[in-house]
Specification:
This protein is an alpha/beta fold. The chain contains 13 helices and 19 strands. The strands form five sheets. The chain has a six-stranded mixed beta sheet with strand order 4-3-2-1-12-13, covered by helices on one side. It has a five-stranded mixed beta sheet with strand order 5-6-7-10-11. Helix 3 runs parallel beside helix 4 and helix 11 packs antiparallel against helix 13. The structure holds manganese (II) ion. Manganese (II) ion binds next to loops.
């Protein structure tokens, strides 16, 4: 038994990426990294994997004003899919509530179907290899604002022997005016797998459970915080009549936030220049390796933060300013890692041993830093954990964020201590300078 689906989350076709001067210098055009490029690749992947249908979970089009651009961008890949005999089923989201029904009429001949138009649940049955079957139920936004849960109108299961997939654009556990739905409702509904659109961060965990349920995430990153993997999902119906989901590499663009450690540097400006280049290159190469990136990816846009205690953090500023290093790009395995944003958070290296011999506040802080660096200071970490808990509990954040582990707390304390020590020492110099 086998039936395969390619799942596509929010695409926002028509949206053009912001191009930096570095990208332009590299000859990279908007069309190379726009959502439309990701959609083209998704269609190719659908054909490679011989899927039986492509499902889109809403917000295919960025906005009504992008209607004609989006139509042009949608059409080419749709024709490829049509040629391969692969139909496309899509629901409308809050962004394309007006545009998608129009576009759906124009491209109907290509095998594109709008599911659940005007907020009425609609169901289709797909047939895979060896006569395996699956029911797809979908619901489209009838208006830009929809205050109720669409699940109220979900029809009962027609055939209990056929797995049922739900395709929905909604605000899961939210209280917005974009079709709010609770997780409890989704769990209780007569649906075996929920593929959701609206939130752009993919729910990697929720979708890889035995009963998949979660946001597919946008096909390629649109906003700055959308770091990490983005792409289409391959869903395969297994022997147990359950869907197994696999995230596929497919987006030509990825966003990342990366720290580069310059710790311990104490040489000249010239030496720092080559050290800096070397460290950045090695850090990005290590990231490329760790992420197991595939050839589909052309550009990784990076927010790079420089960290570590160095002899003179101002030298780092000079190197950056003198050589325009905030417009840095590093080619790795045929793709470009492009630094979009660079910040120097390096701290001044201090002689902790020497300082710790005194009896003033810097000495006290230096002793604490040494303890933490030597893997001691459990009491400091425990007190820090307790203070974080108290402040986070007060703001209600504790339940939503994972509690940092001991290692993370140690790093946080070291960074905070280094900053405080630098401030104290600067004040000390100022005071003694005045006398
Ligand atoms: Mn969206």
């Amino acid at each position: 038994m086998s039936l395969r689906l390619l799942l596509v989350g929010d695409m926002h076709l028509g949206k053009q990426p912001r191009l930096s001067s570095t990208l332009q210098t590299l000859g990279i055009e908007g069309a190379d990294i726009a959502p439309s490029a990701a959609w083209r690749r998704a269609a190719e992947l659908a054909i490679e994997h011989e899927v039986h249908a492509v499902l889109c979970a809403g917000d295919l089009v960025n906005q009504k004003e992008n209607c004609f651009e989006a139509l042009a961008e949608l059409l080419g890949p749709l024709k490829l899919l049509q040629k391969a005999g692969i139909p496309v089923y899509a629901v409308a989201g809050n962004h394309d509530v007006e545009a998608l029904p129009m576009i759906a009429q124009w491209v109907e001949a290509t095998g594109f179907h709008l599911l659940g138009a005007k907020g009425v649940w609609e169901s289709v049955e797909l047939v895979g290899d060896d006569d395996s079957r699956v029911e797809i139920v979908g619901w489209s936004f009838p208006s830009q604002v929809y205050l109720e849960s669409p699940l109220a109108g979900l029809p009962p299961r027609q055939n209990t022997k056929i797995p049922r997939v739900g395709l929905l654009h909604c605000d899961r556990d939210g209280h917005s005016s974009y079709a709010p739905v609770s997780s409890a409702e989704l769990v209780a509904a007569p649906v075996d797998a929920w593929f959701l659109g609206h939130i752009h961060i993919p729910d990697l965990q929720g979708l890889q459970q035995s009963r998949p349920m979660g946001y597919l995430g946008c096909l390629s990153p649109i906003r700055r915080k959308e770091v990490g993997w983005h792409g289409p999902w391959l869903a395969t119906l297994n022997e147990a009549a359950q869907f197994a989901l696999e995230p596929l590499p497919g987006s030509p663009l990825r966003l990342e936030s990366i720290d580069c450690d310059l710790h311990g540097f104490d040489g000249s400006l010239e030496a720092l220049e080559s050290y800096f280049q070397d460290r950045v290159r090695k850090t990005l190469e290590a990231a490329d390796e760790a992420m197991e990136l595939k050839d589909d990816l052309r550009v990784v846009r990076v927010r790079l933060r420089l960290l570590g205690a160095v002899a003179d953090p101002l030298l780092v500023d000079q190197v950056i300013a003198a050589a325009d290093y905030d417009k840095l790009s590093v080619p790795i395995h045929g793709r470009n890692w492009v630094v979009d944003w660079l910040r120097n958070d390096c701290t001044r290296q201090v002689d902790l041993q020497g300082l710790s011999r005194g009896h003033d506040p810097p000495a006290h802080l230096a002793k604490q830093q040494l303890q933490l660096l030597e893997g001691q200071g459990d009491d400091l970490i425990e007190a820090f954990r307790e203070s974080l808990r108290q402040s986070a509990l007060g703001s209600g954040r504790w339940s939503r964020w994972p509690e940092p582990d001991e290692q993370e707390l140690r790093h946080l304390l070291l960074r905070r201590g280094a900053r405080q020590l630098a401030q104290l020492l600067a004040q000390k110099t100022e005071v003694s300078g005045e006398t």
